[in-house]
Amino acid sequence: MSLFKVRNKGLKNVFVHTLIMVLTIVNPSVTQTSLSSSEFERLRQIVQKYGFSVILKIPPQTGTYGMLDTKTRTIWINPVVFELRIATPTLVHETVHAVQQCASPSQLKPLGLGLEYPKMAYPHFMRYTGDRRHIEAEAYTVQSRTDSVDYVIGLLAKYCR
Questions:
Q1: What is each CA distance from 59 to 25, 38, 56, 77, 155, in whole angstroms?
Q2: What's the pLDDT at 21?
Q3: Residues 6 or more apart in contact with residue 4 via CB below 8 angstroms
Q4: pLDDT means over runs of 10, the chain (161 residues)
Q5: HSE-up of residue 120 (Cα within 13 Å, Cβ side)
Q6: Do the beta carbons of residue 148 and residue 121 sit within 8 Å?
Q7: Can you give the residue ranges of every domain in the chain?
Q8: What φ, ψ does residue 75 adopt, rounded to 5°?
Q9: pLDDT digit string, tens, across residues 75-107
Q10: Phi and psi angles of residue 118, each rounded to the nearest 5 degrees, phi first
Q11: Which residue in 9, 39, 94, 136 has the fewest CB atoms around it within 10 Å?
């Protein structure tokens, strides 16, 4: 699952700035959190303890900032997210997908967390249909929480024993 896919490179800058604005409006501390390499590294180490690899390289799926390969349990994080100051939210988003895999190994499914989806993030997941929309909506919702890192660590502990 990818965090974002940009098909038209001319729109990439507009999209990135919109994303940062959305994340900041939904969670004003998100850009500061993203700058904290200690938060990113703390989550990265915990994710790896649950049997997922975290690779800081351009994901194999073109135009993405993050991606979970469910077959290899590998989370790819595009290094550009550090420059964009969205590294931690990107890892949180992909970690939600990892948790969704733990809960339903044969096929990603929404966890049914009962969280209210942030309205500002709607455009980012409404383009999907069916379960995929709910899968992405959960990831966007968790990444936009002020306690996103701790929350997703709790989900790991609950679903990825």
A1: 27, 22, 8, 7, 24
A2: 40
A3: 15, 19, 63, 64, 65, 66, 124
A4: 44 42 47 65 98 97 94 97 95 98 95 91 90 94 95 98 84
A5: 14
A6: no
A7: 9-159
A8: -105, 120
A9: 999 999 999 999 999 999 999 999 999 999 999
A10: -70, 125
A11: 9
Cα gap 17→52, rounded to integer Å: 30
C-alpha neighbours within 13 Å on the C-beta side of residue 134: 11
Q: How far apart are CA 29 and CA 2, in angstroms?
A: 23
Cβ 111 vs Cβ 99: under 8 Å: yes
Torsion angle of alpha carbons 71, 122, 13, 75, nearest 10°?
-20
Residue 117: both structure tokens together: 């989806």
